[in-house]
Amino acid sequence: MSATVSPARIARSRATLEIKSYFRERDSLIFSFLFPIIMLGIFAVAFGGEDVGQDSGAPVDFAQYFLPGMVASGIMLVSFQTLAISLAVERDDGTLKRLRGTPMPAVSYFLGKVGMILVVGLSQIALLLAVAALAFGVELPAEPAKWLTFAWCYVLGTAGGAVLGIAYSSLPRSAKSASAVVVGPLIILQFISGVFFVFSDLPSWLQNVASVFPLKWLAQGMRSVFLPDGFEDLEVSGSWQHGPTALILSLWLIAGLVICVRTFRWQRTGEG
Hints:
Strand content: under 5%
Order of helices and strands: HHEEHHHHHHHH
Structural class: mainly alpha
């Protein structure tokens, strides 16, 4: 009977299991799901009386300015961080090795992970936008073109974050070190990629370093969605750079796929 079950059906069942498991993990909910909302609330309360973008002609308050960064950060937390840590843990405790010995196709396992990320990611963003609009008065875009930009940024950012998370999961030596190895570098990227600070205010050398990584481009793409058009002139390049954003996010997606194929392991190093 197992031979008649399609990989797609197995992937759907696996995705359902992954979603249930994710929402049962309080640590994942706090650091991946609620973290952007908490940070947005902190910025909104701490800098509520100040505006950003006086030279744009249409300044906005801190809550609206940092919303795009929180959206981009949330995407990376749900995709990259969640997969990098969970796969490292599953490899260390033998879960991956046992799953590899079952009839379940490998593609179904990874599609189940991707399905979980899509559901959790969209739920997280929906809640973040609802809190921003209802609690902090952030105006959400009404133009279809902006939501189209949001869609391709979300797809490329989530897909890239997922494959990079799978690739990065081979780096931690054990489950105990996974959180430190994954979370530490990601926090640094958040600080230099325009998530917690106005990107154009950072030193030029930090801007150049951040431009190598996908989070900077994802945050810039989200700024083009949630900020007024006048803010385009305040970018370092004077443009939203949609073309380079799509290109660099796509290149990271391809690079992540190549690294995954070459380095992913179903069991700990040294096991036969």
